[in-house]
Amino acid sequence: MKALTLRPTWAWFVVNSYKDVENRSWPTRLRGRIWIHASSSPVTKAEYEQFVNICRQRRIRNYPEREAFQTGGIVGSVEIVNCVDRSRSFWFIGPYGFVLKNARKTRFKP
């Protein structure tokens, strides 16, 4: 199965079914279930502050502390059901967005 590597905070939004679009500079024809891989870079203070601000804006209450993010491994999976160049999703900034559905968390796999 293919995988998409995301920064740990974005991976958390995806596998917890909050993020329904993943922005990319390139389109894809890929459809179906893929792994979500949290990059190995630790979450910076600035990244975490941005993460918390988005959680508050989206009224997400149960989010992890900065130190709790697991890095460098598979954290779940999601289905890519479309690739778009415009969307009304809160998450879309373009130029392309992979439309995501049916997210599943999994036990961390380094």
Please write out the topology:
Elements: E1 3-6, H1 8-15, E2 21-24, E3 32-38, H2 45-57, E4 73-84, E5 96-109
Parallel strand pairs: 1-3
Antiparallel strand pairs: 2-5, 3-4, 4-5
Order of strands, widest sheet: 1-3-4-5-2
Rg on CA atoms, Å: 13 Å
Largest sheet: 5 strands, mixed
Instruction: Write the H/E string, N to C.
Output: EHEEHEE
User: Could you tell me how far the N terminus lies from the C terminus, measured between alpha carbons in angstroms?
Assistant: 16 Å
Helical stretch tally: 2
Secondary structural class: alpha+beta
Strand content: 35-45%
Output the keywords:
110 residues; 5-stranded mixed sheet
Provide an overview of this structure.
This protein is α+β, with helices and mostly antiparallel strands and 110 residues long. The protein contains 2 helices and 5 strands; from the N terminus they run E-H-E-E-H-E-E. It has helices at residues 8-15, 45-57, and strands at 3-6, 21-24, 32-38, 73-84, 96-109. The protein has a 5-stranded mixed sheet. The longest helix is centred in the middle third of the chain and has 13 residues, at 45-57. The radius of gyration is 13 Å and the shape is globular. The relative contact order is 0.30. The mean pLDDT is 97.
